[in-house]
Amino acid sequence: MVAPEGASPIRQLGYKLKRYYTPADIARHNDVKDCWVSYFGRVYDLTPLLAANPGPLARPIINAAGGDISHWFDAGTGQPKTHVDPVTRLEEVFCPWGRYIHVPPQGPESNWATNFVTPWWEDPQYYIGQKAGKTRKITIMNLMTKQKNTLEVPVEETVEEIRERFWVHNAHAGSYTWKRMGRVLNMEKTLEENGVKDETEELVKLGIDPDDHIPVIHLYFDDDLTEG
After folding, report:
1. Burial, 148: exposed, middle or buried (Cβ in 10 Å; 0-12, 13-18, 19+)?
2. Is the CA virtual torsion 164, 165, 166, 169 positive or negative?
3. Is 200 left (phi over 0), alpha (psi -120 to 50) or beta?
4. Distance CA 9, CA 168 (A)
5. Which letter does DSSP use for residue 75 in this model?
6. In the prediction, which pLDDT does 87 show?
7. 44 - beta bridge partners?
């Protein structure tokens, strides 16, 4: 998989980059040693930032790990929101969960580090991909083993990207032909582009549980285990 456009090649990552991440993908990375956040539709891995900046200023970011922090920032400028302090009458960064890394103190502090060039919210090295605009469920059934797995996937992903997600359930997923109702799927297109319509909203409007009507993709074994 090619790295998402704009993602930095500087850092060595211990995982494979995706173009899109679901809220559930992000939520799994929720502690100081594995910290992802999203804001304004983009996903960031702040784990190295926390490792380089231990201390109380890291706590608000750790507490937000796995979640969305768009409310920390101004949608127009992309910069942290500001407000006027009611005591000092001075404009300062609005920190609803407490002051965080690279936010200056209200007044002079001897231990305030100013040796960073770019604040983390402007630093492209932490960007790892986009947050899915919408997700949908798809069930994948292996016709040889009869195993079924239901995945929640970004609607923007191609079938090939969905197959990469499925590898955790079947290391030989590349040795199967993927079909929907007997028709071979184009792996470079999305489910919708393959005619697999997402009917979730329509079903909800009708009072029908969408989980009872999840589309199924069938895997046909190609008798070749060279792909893994």
Report:
1. exposed
2. positive
3. alpha
4. 25
5. T
6. 82
7. 37, 127
Copy the structure tokens of residue 72: 């920390």
Continuous H helices in 36-148:
47-52, 59-64
pLDDT of residue 129: 97
Q: Which candidate, 94, 101, 27, 93, places its Cα nearest to that of 64?
A: 27
Mark the ranges of the chain whose per-residue pLDDT is less than 50: 1-2, 9-10, 225-228
217 forms beta bridges with: 140
Q: Where are the alpha helices (DSSP H) in the chain?
A: 23-27, 47-52, 59-64, 159-166, 200-205
DSSP 143-179: TTT--EEEEEEETT-BHHHHHHHHTTT-TTGGGEEEE
Residue type, 117: V
Give the pLDDT of residue 5. 63
Q: Where are the beta strands (DSSP E) in 80-160?
A: 82-84, 91-93, 127-131, 135-142, 148-154
d(CA 178, CA 158): 12
Instruction: Report the distance separating Cα 102 and Cα 193, nearest Å.
Output: 44
Its pTM stands at: 0.86
Sheet containing 30-31: give its strands across: 20-21, 127-131, 42-45, 34-39, 30-31
Q: Which two tokens stand for residue 162?
A: 């969905």
